[in-house]
Amino acid sequence: MVNIPCMRSQELREGVIIQDEHGNKLGQSTVAARKAISTVTFSRICIAAPGMLLTPVLMEYLEKKNFYEGSWKSKELWRSDVTSWGIFLSLRFPLGVLYFPQRQSISVSSLEDDFKKKYT
Prior knowledge:
With 120 residues, the protein is mainly alpha-helical. The chain contains 5 helices and 2 strands, in the order H-H-E-E-H-H-H. Helices cover 67% and strands 8% of the residues. The chain is elongated and about 70 Å long. The two termini are 35 Å apart.
C-alpha cells in the first residue's frame, strides 16, 4: 500500500496528463493523479486480499482433514501454502485489471480551478 504512492510521487507532485475524448492533451492535474493512485492502490488490495484471506482458511481445512501426515508435513504444508497463494493470485489478477481500467474519465468539476475556468 505504501509502494504505489512512493513510486508515483512524481505524478503526485506534477500531475497526470488530462486528455479529451479525442486524445488531445488539455493539461496536467494533481487531483486526477491522487484519484488514479488511490484507485490503483485499492485495486492491488482487491487483487491480493482473497489469497491472503482464503489461503489460511484452506490450510486450516487441509490440516483438520489430516491431508498432511508423516514426517514431510511441514515441507508439503509450505508447498501447498505457496501453491494456493499462486492460484488465488493468478485468478484474481486478470479480474482486477479488467475491473479497474487503465484510462478513466473524470469530470471537469472535480479538477483544479484552472480546468474548471477553462473548460466549463
